[in-house]
Amino acid sequence: MGQLNIIVADDHPLYRSGVIDAVSKMPNIRVVAHAENGMKAYQEIIALRPDIAILDIEMPILSGLDVAKKVLGEKHQTRIILLTMHKTKIFSRMPCNRGFRVICSKTTPLRSCWSALYQLIKAIPL
């Protein structure tokens, strides 16, 4: 497997740093950019064309959900992982119904989120 490029976007600096740190330790993964708001995340996705974007659903300027809709609507190949603080079934099912790849609650054990990330990685043709 070749190296996969990832963008991480979250408006909480401590959480964003933690995700970057954890993802950077995974084999064959390179974090190529990070963003503190949805607009910057969208701009980085367009400029860098990463394999995966890990986006917080609720961010300033553009929400992660809006970024994901734009990216998928423009037919980019970037896979999307959405992070949320919400646990309700209706909210957590909504993105899946709109074509988003993975959604993880920020309260989910890290091992489960990384399992979802590895499943997503397996689906990327290299």
Which terms summarize this structure?
126 residues; alpha/beta; 5-stranded parallel β-sheet; 5 strands; 44% helix; 22% strand
3D structure, described in words:
The structure is a single chain. Helix 2 (about 40-50) runs parallel beside helix 3 (about 65-75). The protein has helices at about 15-25, 40-50, 65-75, 90-95, 110-120, and strands at about 5-10, 30-35, 50-55, 80-85, 100-105. Strands 2-1-3-4-5 form a five-stranded parallel sheet, sandwiched between helices. The protein is globular and about 30 Å long. Helix 3 (about 65-75) links the parallel strand 3 (about 50-55) and strand 4. By secondary structure, the protein is of the alpha/beta class. The chain contains five helices and five strands.
Low-confidence blocks of residues? 88-99
Largest sheet: 5 strands, parallel
What is the CA-atom radius of gyration, in angstroms?
A: 13 Å
**Shape label:** globular
The portion of residues assigned to helices is 40-55%
Name the beta content range: 15-25%
Q: How much is the average pLDDT? A: 78
**For this entry, what is the oligomeric state of its chains?**
single chain
User: From the helix content, strand content and strand pairing, which structural class follows?
Assistant: alpha/beta
